[in-house]
Amino acid sequence: MARIIQEVCPTYQVSLSNRQESLSIDKRHLIEVVKKTLHSERVASAEISVAVMGDEEIRAINREYLDHDYPPDVLSFVLESEGGLESKSVRGAGKILSGEILLGAEEAIRGGEKFDWPAQDELTL
Fold first, then answer.
1. What is the 8-class DSSP label of residue 91?
2. What are the beta bridge partners of residue 100?
3. How far apart are CA 119 and CA 108, in angstroms?
């Protein structure tokens, strides 16, 4: 008797908002990077909102929520997290996540110049 193995496909809902004009954004690529990261961390299901922002906006959020007065390269906020498997090597294993990722476009430009690679790669990192 043949054994049938069915792979469960995780559900990832990722939205992206570009709220700056300093850097051209490849929306499809960024969304795919988020989905691949969730998959590699074995997250069961996720609803993630990504916003690419300029210095002024991301600095204000960093100041308000973390009391840091500078524009960061990234801020992340977990809005809800459920479940998960006990795994020290894979942090997201089995979890259901809801969260926000804020990316600093101008900081990505500066980081790209500093490390001599494209700003898009710095933003993705």
1. T
2. 49, 77
3. 5
